[in-house]
What does this fold into?
Amino acid sequence: MTTSSIASRVDADITVTDLTDTDSDSEESDSEIFDDEPVLTALSWSARSMRNVGSSPFRAPHLAELIANDLRHKILTGELADGAHLPRQEDLLAAYGVSKPSLREALRILESQGLVSVLRGKVGGAVVHRPDVQTVAYSVGLVLQSQGVLVHDLSDALNRIEPQCVALCTARADRHETVLPKLRAVQDEAARQIHDVSAFTVVSRRFHEEIVANCGNQSLILVVGALEAVWSAHAREWAEHNVAGDGFPNLDYRRQGLEDHGRLLELIAAGDPAAAAAEAARHLEWAPVYAIDFDHGVLPSLLSFGDHSRER
It folds into this structure.
């Protein structure tokens, strides 16, 4: 890979010349340090990036941004596989012809976007993470928390959207091969765990997650799946808090939930989207609100994104 590979992925609509490294923690420019290396100058920059600039002077992208853009492209297209390690620092420096500060900043950009985990210490290196529902869920949770959104609001959103996902599952012509086997497996596991309140809560939430994950609409799978992940994280924590007390729903309540899921399975199998959606809405009306703290706010920290990103 050479620095020309970056420029080859954009249109030659606008040429930016004299593009040099301006990282504040570098004492010299990259051209001074790597005067025998191919420095990123006279790069082509697509006019598409100018669409929202208007009459304001445009800013040439820093070297770190160009490197991050190139590595991001490789991650999203699968050229760099999920869980793989990025090439060694020495190899990246030689490939891009930049200084260590520029490369470090590029990795910081990718890490802030959840695309890599930078391993510090003796091991070092960076691990690649392709974006998934958990990544989106953590970001969504942060936004909800920053805006003071309560878990009741999250519950209301899912109560309105999830029945539509049930209807989509029911309308699938291949539901007997794709949807129902997964839901029945979760239902069987929930029946086995009904006397273990914590395990039952986790498995019961998986039933709802599988409905969204198998609705067939990729945008809903991503967006609603992120909301489900935030909700499920609260459910797990809520169950742990209530296991030793009287707040957790009793055995009759859990059995009722299991029966409701059984009716949903029957309606999905029968291929009646309207009836299945109505049953889902009725079931969700009496679902508990998983409030953890006194303020009943959304807590994205329950998703343990930092640990998750290293375990994938």
User: Anything to note?
Assistant: DSSP finds 14 helices and four strands in the chain.
